[in-house]
Amino acid sequence: MTHLTLKRSKLLIVSFSALFLSSVFVGQALAEDDFAAEGERRAKLAGSELLGTPAPQRELTTLAGDTLNLGELYGNKPVYIKFWATWCVPCRQQMPGFEEIYQQYGDKLQVISVNTGISDDIDSVSAFIKKEGLTMPVTIDDGSLARAFKLRVTPQHFLIDKSGRIAYVGHQDDEAFHQALKEVASGSVADAAPPSGVVAERASGYQLGDKLASLALRSIDDTYHPLPSADQQGKATGLVFFSPWCEWYLVDSEPETAKSCQLVREMVEQSASNSKAQWLHVSTNLWASQAELVQYQTNYHTRLPIVFDEEGTLFGLFGVTQLPTIVYIDESGRITEKVSAKAADFTERLQSLLNEQ
Q1: pLDDT tens, residue by residue, 331-355
Q2: Which domain holds residue 343?
Q3: Contact 186/107 with Cβ under 8 angstroms?
């Protein structure tokens, strides 16, 4: 059996104060500067091991239908990749400046706008682009590029020099970022043959009706939870893909999603003990850490195990992009249900799964 050991988060910082964590999870927003500084810290911590390394390669398809081959761009011109989401407040705040960067540097470096795909779709992204007047190439990630770049926050900047190596990772639109942008765009890095980058594969996760290979998930309390598989029948399992910030952070930007996250948590907590299945929460790695998930359990009084998908492996394996999403696996290891809150009959389908005896 494969033990998918989701290792303790590199983002776990012991110096997090209880005040910070409790402020986050009861929805009492920290000062904007505090959030910006925290986002910068997480971005740099996650990206520190990438600095100076070959940038991931991938063919991207833009919303306009054009193809951008990162491997072919590296070595020819610098590249600026920005990950963002429509519901992300600092992303929205940075968009006017992002468009200005494209207008100013578009002939000197390749600017690529990458929507994370998390709780977004082509309709929401297209509407956002039109509203903001963005003219640079835009693509929606399936999760594989984010995993290759070790994305942990939104927005997150990646500057790749002409040699094809990652020169800067950050979160804020500040002086340090603009200085790095100027240096990369000027081609001040010595010319070199483009390195062989890491190819970011597309997420090719399980589909409805597929049977799982042998797999066990480790929750944040270090307990292993075997999933039923084609090789070994077991207890039916419901996986609730979520984020610890969905219920409070999205109240203003995506209120329906915030309500759905709360509804799912309450329904599953209330009914899971009477269900024939084991139910597990699976947390995104975006703006999340193991410490925050422990605090989430405390603040929301959740009893169900939480699995921290630190590297985004499970979200990719099951092809999950929407929050919340339910994946149900029967005793034989077959995926019999996969439904997100965007489905009109989501509540009824979830209740039906919880009622199975």
Answers
A1: 999 999 999 999 999 999 999 999 9
A2: 215-355
A3: no
Q: Could you tell me if 100 and 219 lie in one domain?
A: no
Assign residue 79 the CATH number of its domain: 3.40.30.10
Residue 19 lies in a domain: no
pLDDT at 356: 80
Check whether the bond before 324 is cis (ω within 30° of 0): yes
Alpha helices in the chain (DSSP H): 18-25, 32-47, 70-73, 89-105, 122-132, 144-148, 175-186, 246-253, 255-271, 290-300, 313-317, 346-355
Judge if 220 and 126 occupy the same domain: no
CB 23 within 8 A of CB 75: no
Low-confidence ranges of the chain (pLDDT < 70): 1-33, 35, 188-204, 357
Query: Is residue 90, in this structure, part of any structural domain at all?
Result: yes
Pairing of strands 156-160, 224-227: unpaired
pLDDT score recorded for residue 124: 96
Output the six-digit token pair for 8: 């303790």
From CA 289, how far away is CA 15, in angstroms rounded? 13
What's the domain count of the chain?
2
